[in-house]
Amino acid sequence: MTFATLVSNIVKIVNNGLIPLLFALAVIFLMINIVRFFFIEGGEEGTQKGKQAVLYGALGIAVIFSIWGIVNILLNTLNSII
C-alpha cells in the first residue's frame, strides 16, 4: 500500500461517512434549537440562549461545509499531482 492509496482511503472515509454524519447532527441540533427558541418560553434569558444556540448551529453547518470543500480541494490537487 502506497502513501497515496492510504491518503485516498482516509479522504474517502471522511467524504462518505464522517462529513455527512456531522452535517446531519448539525442540522438536527439547529432544528431542535429553532423549535426551542420559538415554542419554549424561558423569558429573556431563554431567548438569549436560544439565539446563541441557533447561531452556533448555523456556524457549525458553515464550518462543516468549509472543511468538506477544503478536503475536496486537497484531494483534487493531490490527484492531479500524483
How do you describe this structure in short?
The chain is mostly helical. The chain is built from two helices and no strands.
Number of beta strands = 0
- Computed over alpha carbons, the radius of gyration is 18 Å
Unreliable runs, pLDDT <50, ≥5 residues? none
Strand content: under 5%
Q: What's the shape?
A: elongated
Distance between the termini: 15 Å
Class based on secondary structure composition and strand pairing? mainly alpha
Whole-number total of structural domains: 1
- Give average pLDDT, whole number: 82
Describe it.
- By secondary structure, the protein is mainly α.
- The protein has one domain (3-81).
- It contains 2 helices and no strands.
- It has helices spanning 3-39, 43-81.
- α1 runs antiparallel to α2 (43-81).
- The radius of gyration is 18 Å and the shape is elongated.
- It starts with a helix and ends with a helix.
- The mean pLDDT is 82.
